[in-house]
Amino acid sequence: MTKAADIDIAAVSKVYGNTTAVHAISLKIPAATYCCLLGPSGCGKTTTLRMIAGHENITTGDILLGNTIVNDLPPASRGTAMMFQSYALFPHLDLVDNVAFSLKMKGMAKDERRREALEMLKLMQLEPYATRRPAQLSGGQQQRVALARALITKPEALLLDEPLSALDPFLKIRMRAELKKLQTSLGITFVHVTHSQEEAMALADIIVVMNDGRIEQAAPPRKIFEKPATAFVARFMGNHNIITGRLVGKSDDEVTIELPGGMRFFAPGLVPHAEMTADIAVRIDHVRVGESPMAGFGFTGIVSNIEDLGATVKITVSAPGLEDFTVVMGDAAFFAEPFKIGDAVPLSWSPSDAIVLGRVKQ
Ligand SMILES: Nc1ncnc2c1ncn2[C@@H]1O[C@H](COP(=O)(O)OP(=O)(O)OP(=O)(O)O)[C@@H](O)[C@H]1O
């Protein structure tokens, strides 16, 4: 295969009429990285991917692949290949001709391009189906044909737009593992658009969380999970409680917030000078139930919902001025001393489990 390329997105914006889909984002994706662009519908991830591919013009800024500014290069000259959500296979061509198509466009002789296409089908374990048409394949096999067709051009970076969305849940997990294996063995850069936190966590070396055309955080999955940078990331990843309150105390290394009901919470960290409120995050699985809390690192609330999820039990607790607070307990711990809706329960956490969240400039 070919070498991988760094991708450097430098202050790139995309404006469609009155809509700014992407607001001057900057991002460096090191060569041979598996990068997931993650965010809710409309956050600008597909637009970003299409600008890297060259299917969309950049309004301002630069995109570099390796040392080359590719802003004005057509897609086929960039060293990237794109795999589309719908796979976009030609229904009337067999697999060999589907995969060989871009080589045909480049003017490669028939024998040579068919030989290369067969090699690629072999790599994707599709050789036995070489003479079939796409409709005669399963969803997972069609996806592998689409991958083969993208990889035949020996790209430095493969761009994947929701590549797993057409698959059923079981196949999704299998193909996810195959994608990761493929990226590792090819050693090229993958940029994969998804709205699934789980998919991004499972695949990425770097997750880029986008919201409203901006990057909220770009970091390895572990860091995103353990230290979300903003309330948006913490909410979107779904594993943190967020406590938002008026900033009533601030030292060099700790903040104090107060909720409308009067409860106060502390957390190590800093917030910018101008802020009037601050957000503190606490992981739902780092909350202890039943121990009386240390001042500022817990509270007593009323159980408003209990969901038995099998290995764990998810409990929702309410208190004045708080968004619903979620706690996940192991099933053994819960059923040893179960409680019911309406019970008052003390919740607590370690000071090191409280994180002050930042904000992205709007
Ligand atoms: N061709 C277009 N013309 C006008 N607005 C567009 C166009 N393409 C995208 N947009 C707008 O730009 C914003 C970002 O769209 P984009 O498709 O990049 O989001 P996304 O995060 O990929 O969403 P999804 O997961 O739904 O595909 C949206 O507000 C969308 O409506």
UniProtKB/TrEMBL annotation:
GO molecular function, one term: ATP binding
Keyword list, A-Z: ATP-binding, Nucleotide-binding, Transport
PROSITE patterns: ABC_TRANSPORTER_1 (PS00211), ABC_TRANSPORTER_2 (PS50893)
Stretches assigned to the ABC transporter domain: 7-237
One Pfam family linked to the record: ABC_tran
Superkingdom of source: Bacteria
Signal peptide: none
InterPro entries named in the record: AAA+_ATPase, ABC_SmlMolc_Importer, ABC_transporter-like_ATP-bd, ABC_transporter-like_CS, Mo/tungstate-bd_C_term_dom, P-loop_NTPase, Transp-assoc_OB_typ2
Alphabetical list of Gene3D superfamilies matching this protein: 2.40.50.100, P-loop containing nucleotide triphosphate hydrolases (3.40.50.300)
Homology family: Belongs to the ABC transporter superfamily.
Protein name listed in UniProt: Spermidine/putrescine transport system ATP-binding protein
